[in-house]
Design brief:
The protein has 310 residues and is of the alpha+beta class. Among the domains are: 7-118, 3-Layer(aba) Sandwich (Trna Endonuclease, Chain: A, domain 1); 141-225, no CATH class. Helix content is 24%, strand content 43%. It has 7 helices and 18 strands. The protein has helices spanning 7-22, 72-84, 100-109, 121-128, 176-186, 262-268, 276-283, and strands spanning 27-35, 41-52, 55-64, 89-94, 112-118, 133-150, 157-158, 164-166, 172-175, 192-199, 206-209, 212-233, 236-244, 250-257, 260-261, 272-274, 298-299, 302-306. It has an 8-stranded mixed beta sheet, with helices on both faces. It starts with 6 loop residues before the first helix and ends with a strand.
């Protein structure tokens, strides 16, 4: 088994990962070595480099995983480090808070103080609700019929929905199932009765019938799709919170559920059919919709507050 990282290093890694999410256009570095104005190399825990308009911004994070509050000498040393690397802004993140001396230095030098803690049940309930229930939504076929036009056959024929599509050498390229879902996406993911034609242009496509390859020209797919929702009772697995030291209000908070088997859930529940109005709200982003046809069998739910202020 790999050696477990020390807690101070884990804190640095977590802070770096959080900043990557909060500043997706910035260049985030962990253990960043920078040459200071003094001519000394400085090892910085986490940094963000980004241009705002034509101005370069360089933010430095100092992560402290101590058993006691960060002291004045630590804040003073960080302020010297910030000046030496010409930082735009400095942020100290502590897992145990700051003493009065550290707070005084931070105020004098314009250093932002934040605390880090693991998320708890209170955070979980605030982000996901009192009962921590989630709604899993999926679109399913109620009925489907595929009529294909084949070369050399004057009458269209019905073929299975999962018929493989081959090249002229009999090598499978795709199947009608995947082709249909691609068409469905292009149509805006509608539900209800759906009629659409799939054409095979650009290169000859074939299907296998009675042991031989037959060229397929197009396929008319008639289907009825219904959307259903399934309830998932979620349990908390882990989470992280960074708070403003003075206000104790979160500036970043995330919680992650334990993994659950969505296939088991939809197989054990009849599901509740969703009417088109609610379904359209889901598509517009009112709720999270998981495409079960492409989701891994075991999934987790992550809820985040990014950049919460006030």
């Amino acid at each position: 088994m790999p050696n477990k990282k020390p807690e101070w290093e884990e804190l640095e890694i977590i802070v770096a990962e959080i900043q990557m999410q909060l500043a997706p256009k910035g260049e985030v570095h962990h253990n960043h070595r920078v040459m200071g104005k003094s001519g000394r190399w400085r090892k910085l825990d986490v940094t963000i480099s980004q241009n705002v308009s034509t101005f370069p911004v360089f933010i430095v994070f100092d992560c402290k995983h101590h058993s006691k509050p960060v002291k004045l000498k630590d804040a003073a040393a960080f302020s010297v480090q910030l000046e030496d690397v010409n930082a735009t802004l400095g942020v100290m993140i502590s897992s145990s808070g700051f003493d009065l001396g550290a707070k005084a230095i931070a105020k004098q030098k314009g250093i932002i103080l934040q605390t880090f803690r693991k998320a708890g049940e209170t955070d979980w309930k605030e982000l996901l609700g009192e009962n921590a229930w989630s709604v899993l939504t999926g679109v399913q076929f109620h009925q489907v019929n595929v009529i294909a036009a084949l070369a050399g056959n004057p009458t269209p024929v019905e073929i299975p929905f999962d018929t493989p599509i081959c090249n002229e050498n009999g090598e499978t390229l795709d199947d009608l199932n995947n082709t249909f879902w691609g068409m469905w996406n292009e149509m805006g993911k509608p539900i209800g009765d759906l009629n659409g034609q799939v054409t095979f242009e650009g290169f000859p496509s074939f299907i296998k019938r009675e042991g031989r390859l037959v060229q397929i020209q197009n396929a008319m797919i008639n289907a009825k799709l219904i959307a259903k929702k399934y309830l998932v009772n979620l349990n908390m697995a882990e989470g992280n919170v960074i708070e403003d030291e003075d206000s104790a209000k979160p500036v970043y908070r995330s919680v992650t559920s334990k993994g659950f088997d969505w296939a088991e859930i939809i197989n054990s529940q009849p599901g509740i059919e969703i009417k088109n109005e609610e379904y359209q709200q889901i598509l517009r982003g009112a709720k999270v919709m998981i495409d079960l046809s492409k989701a891994k069998r075991y999934i987790r739910v992550v809820a985040e507050d990014k950049g919460v202020q006030g």
